[in-house]
From TrEMBL:
Residues 71-158 form the Methyltransferase type domain. Keywords: Methyltransferase, Transferase. This is Class I SAM-dependent methyltransferase. The keyword Protein biosynthesis does not apply. GO terms for molecular function: methyltransferase activity. It comes from Streptomyces koyangensis.
Amino acid sequence: MSQSAPASPGPDRPRPGTAGFDALVAEAEAAEVDGWDFSWFEGRATEERPSWGYQRLLAGRLADPAVRAALDLQTGGGEVLAGAGPYPPAMAATESWPPNLARATRLLQPRGVVVVAGPEEPPLPFADGAFDLVTSRHPATVWWPEIARVLAPGGTYFAQHVGPETVFELSEFFLGPLGGEVRRLRHPEAERAEAEQAGLEMVDLRTERLRMEFHDIGAVVHFLRKVVWTVPGFTVEAYRDRLRELHERISAEGPFVAHSTRTLVEARRPA
């Protein structure tokens, strides 16, 4: 999603704020949702980025001469990793969703990255202690024991996680109030405890809360189709009435504001 002020829509796109509900929804339903390219949202939605700059930091870790083998877990369409090279002598990435897997293979294989298809659940198809560095950006699930297993002694897990209560304003608009148990998911201190239980030492753990704005209902629909865990089982047909209500609210009051949280994680396997 764009970090800058909303840009003007292209000549073939409905103009947010003037296009009708049906046109905006139809456009969003027709858009591709594979990969983690968020350029579709330009002019339609914005999201603040964490201050630390994960991709830049990732590039520095991959360029460290002490890192001879690295693994990027749940790489999505490979966009983040592709922009963070050059890579160590051995570089692998995993992805389970077929559309993302195909996209990541096309993007990363020419750069020398071995893209491995496989389920997100353990076991990972790698030997014990195979990697000096394991990375991930926004993994759906973090399997700490498996990360610890494939890390070499002294190796590092470096990642950016989705934090607690991300986009809950949008989730609760469609689902109603979410309970305390759901709100505690992905809490950084819970992740610290899980990492330490797996035998890792937490070196850095930082969380930031970031503003998001949705400027039209098409952006909302596209987001919910792409980030499927926000409203599980979302379809336009099932939520058409609520979508229309939100469209009218945005038209009358301006952007729908939500907040994401992001956590920077660095954990190390003791040497």
